Amino acid sequence: MDPQQELFSTLLTELKNTGYDVYDGFLPPDNTPYPFVYLADSQQIDDRNKTAVFGSVYQTIDVWNNNPKKRGDVSQILLKIKGICRAIRRTPNFNWDVRNIEQRILSDTTTTQPLLHGILNVEFYFD
């Protein structure tokens, strides 16, 4: 299996075990209860090597909440997700190591109701 897909599948399973609604592939429909987690974009960069497969997968994970006064809740969810990411050390075909995590929490006014949007960009190294 492709490293990016193997990691994505593992993350999806682990995130669903948190008790939060988790979506992938597309954002959920209107009237979906908040907060929810969205397993978003993935990017894989293979290191150049003739005989081994290793490189990095960059995974974006979004958290949405419809109460701008609950920033602490979004922060706690992001903390839990970072712990899940760091705990992934091995999948069936690859070893994993989190190299970098970038976290942002933003206001989102693209809907009629103000939202909080937490974003994690996680760099996983695989070999």
What is the strand tally?
5
Question: Percent of residues in helical segments?
Answer: 10-25%
- List the strand order in the largest sheet: 1-2-3-5-4
Distance between the termini: 13 Å
Beta-strand fraction estimate: 35-45%
How does the helix and strand content classify structurally? Answer: alpha+beta
Question: Could you describe the largest sheet, including whether it forms a barrel?
Answer: 5 strands, mixed
Radius of gyration: 15 Å
Structure annotation, total helices: 2
Q: Shape from CA axes?
A: elongated
SSE pattern: HEEEHEE
* Quaternary structure state of the chains depicted: single chain
Poorly predicted ranges: none
Could you tell me the mean pLDDT? 94
Give an overview of the whole structure.
This protein has 127 residues and is α+β, with helices and mostly antiparallel strands. It is built from 2 helices and 5 strands. A 5-stranded mixed beta sheet has the order 1-2-3-5-4, with helices on one face. Strand 4 and strand 5 form a beta hairpin. The radius of gyration is 15 Å and the shape is elongated. The model has no long low-confidence stretch (mean pLDDT 94).
